[in-house]
Please model this.
Amino acid sequence: MFDVNETLLDIDVLNSLFDRIFAAKGRMREWFAQLVVYSETLSLTGAYVPFGKLGAGVLRMLGQVHGIPITEVHVQELAELIENLPVHPDASAGLRRLKDAGFTLATLTNTAAGEGPDPLDKAGLGPLFDRRFTVEPARRFKPTPATYKLVSDTMKVAQSETWLVAAHTWDAIGAQSVGWNAALVTRGINAPLVLDGVPEPTLTGASLTDVADAIVKHVCG
Model:
């Protein structure tokens, strides 16, 4: 099971838009961190709006914080960039490594399904996946346990035989809370949270190909 945004898709291309809007570096990462915080806030309080609408709302909020007017043009530019995010260079090789080893591949993303081809389809990677899940049926965002249970109930695969591959430690912790294994892709900007009582990822690797090789070795020997 693959997370999509940042794990398979490169969100750093959004930096150019945020740098232009705010005339400052680092605002994209600030926006993304706040997007995760407020997605989890909505899940904890029982509210739900699609991830894309939440992203636009957080952008407007960030504009207020920094005294920058956010226009509808800015919001549309962000939406268009997200619809056309590029895949990471290691995505194809990592996915094919696991597919060739006999694994069933699927995605689980906070982003609602669109009407047309998504970035994975546009990159030619769509056919590698057996299923594509979003959190919409659960109306809760990851790492709420219900989102992972939705997948387990649908796929009818034992939790102990299910892996989440993600670039976010909070996502890995969520998957492990329902008994999944978790493989963390650090990409040089993420790391496990090492604390007593907090599960660490089953496997950690710098790239998707590193993680794919490690999973194959761990499972297949």
In short: The domain at 91-220 is CATH 3.40.50.1000 (Rossmann fold). The radius of gyration is 17 Å. The mean pLDDT is 96.
